[in-house]
Design goal:
mainly beta; four-stranded antiparallel sheet; three-stranded antiparallel sheet; 0% helix
Length: 82
């Protein structure tokens, strides 16, 4: 599960990460490493406003064992809109 918190405190979540070069396929990595860059797309379908900043982006990575997860938190991210 991925979550964002906008500057107004609204929380949105998404359960799917997609490959950026093929949005029809989900993004999966067997063993995530901390010092390697990964590219993926997350769509938050409930988002209604264009926000300039994400106060918190939380990525939850599921491990190999059932119930094992790792959370990665990123704070104060500027949003670039195309």
């Amino acid at each position: 599960m991925q979550q964002i918190v906008d500057p107004k405190g609204n929380t949105l979540q998404s359960f799917t990460a997609l490959r950026p070069n093929d949005l029809t396929k989900t993004f999966r990595i067997e063993q995530a490493e901390t010092k390697i860059s990964y590219a993926f797309t997350i769509e938050f379908k409930e988002a209604k406003d264009i926000i300039p900043t994400i106060s918190l982006l939380r990525l939850q990575i599921y491990g190999e064992r059932v119930g094992s997860t790792s959370n990665y938190n990123f704070k104060g991210l500027d949003v670039k809109w195309d």
